[in-house]
Request: fold
Amino acid sequence: MAMRVVSVRRAFTLLFKRDHEQRPIAEVVSVEDGRYVSYDFADWTELSAFKKEFEPNAHDWIRTVRFDLVVPRIIRVLTFAKLPKQDVKFNRRNLFARDNNVCQYCGKRFGTSHLSLDHVIPRSLGGKTCWENIVCACLKCNVRKGGRTPTQAHLQLVRSPHKPRRNPVVSVSLADHRYSSWRQFLDSAYWDVELTT
Reply:
């Protein structure tokens, strides 16, 4: 089961770490010819040397003083006490990803430098800074709306803002072929199930 997206540094830390009985706490899972194959740190180092010689441009690399390592896409944690909290951070990157860089008033897609974040109900009218009240807006629509509600400005939202159930940046990453191995673990039907404690 997919738990979270981690940095490359964290992934290698997990691969290198041992539990109190000196057993590895994680392993790499690689998709090879449609099959999932597991590797510990030593085996992954060996495989990386092979890939460096025969397919160096097919992978992302981490370079160390003594050797180069292929960046793993899937790390399987072998033991854990509980599922981590699946809360989506409220930040600019996740807001742009949630709205897919589309202005929620005119419906056009823009680069992040041409988008701003808009309070649907302005703060001056008691609007809060939260998932349900912030949307992406192009500069033109944001200026047109000003300090008014969409109704007052004769604008209509393309889609009502909401808090995503999972990190929206992950959905954006799946479009990149390098992350295609994640699809199996991020089935939307599975992730839409509400977890209770």
Notes: The radius of gyration is 22 Å. The first helix runs from residue 8 to 16. Residues 8-84 form one domain. The beta strands are 26-32, 35-39, 61-63, 68-70, 74-77, 115-119, 134-138.
